[in-house]
Amino acid sequence: MERGNQLELSILIPAHNEEKRMESCLIRLTDFLKQTHPSSEIVVSEDGSKDRTIEIVNEFKRKSSEIQVNLLHATERLGKGGGLKRGIEVCKGLFTVFTDTDLPIPLETITHAVELLRGGADVVSGSRVMKGSKRDEPLKRRILSRGFHYLALVSLGMRWDSQCGFKAVRTGVGRELFSQMGNPGFAYDVDFLIQAKRKGVNVVEMPLEWHYNADSSMRLSKDILGMFKELVHIFCQAHFG
């Protein structure tokens, strides 16, 4: 059930040490939203940054008037999932789109996702692997991503591209799903989609055109290892309570 939402759309961005990309991200998003989704807002859920991320968002807020930009600050790391969970609680849109600061997808994808939500989807899960998708990224990242996807499929029956950072939800549904989750890190997507499956909500997968950014804040070796550890934790929760 929605909680007095007045806007059509919230764009929710998790951010940790994103000073290099934050301003360009906000400029691109606000220009796009003004033309296509004027009843919208941007919520930046900042997660224990040690750089100028907060200052950059605040500077942009003072200059932006047509699209509201809201900043949530965390003094300690919440994890990507924790930041999204905190962020969706304040989103005012009927629909909420999750995307990363590097905006790896064409912005028109946001409109396509909103159309699917209007058409009856509860969750729209972006996919880089289904038919119709396009993807450019280094072979090593693709192999590791496919490996994680395969393990999630075998261990949890997770057929969706769970690690894709682009998702859209009915905001009330998203809040309910996050409230059931216990894994706040990079593998939060798996837990999120498991909860969606358990609740029986309508999940629609959407092929994406996905572009790799060499400045990604994800540290491949460390974060991939953390994701596999989280997957084991999720597996134990799912099968042994």
Question: Can you describe what's shown?
Answer:
- With 241 residues, this protein is an alpha/beta fold.
- It has one domain: Spore Coat Polysaccharide Biosynthesis Protein SpsA, Chain A, CATH 3.90.550.10.
- The chain contains eight helices and nine strands.
- The strands form two sheets. A seven-stranded mixed β-sheet has the order 3-2-1-4-7-5-8. Strands 6-9 form a two-stranded parallel ribbon.
- α3 crosses α6 (171-179) and α5 packs parallel to α8.
- It is globular and about 45 Å long.
- Mean pLDDT is 84; it is low at 1-5.
- Percent strand equals 15-25%
Strand order of the largest sheet: 3-2-1-4-7-5-8
Helix content estimate: 40-55%
List the secondary-structure elements in sequence, H or E: EHEHEHEHEEHEHHEEH
Q: Architecture in CATH?
A: Alpha-Beta Complex
Alpha-carbon distance between the two ends: 27 Å
Tell me, briefly, the overall form.
globular
Overall pLDDT, averaged? 84
At the fourth level of CATH, the homologous superfamily is Spore Coat Polysaccharide Biosynthesis Protein SpsA, Chain A
Low-confidence stretches: 1-5
> Largest sheet at a glance?
7 strands, mixed
Write out key terms for the chains shown.
two-stranded parallel ribbon, Spore Coat Polysaccharide Biosynthesis Protein SpsA, Chain A, seven-stranded mixed sheet, 241 residues, 8 helices
Please outline what is shown here.
With 241 residues, the chain is an alpha/beta fold.
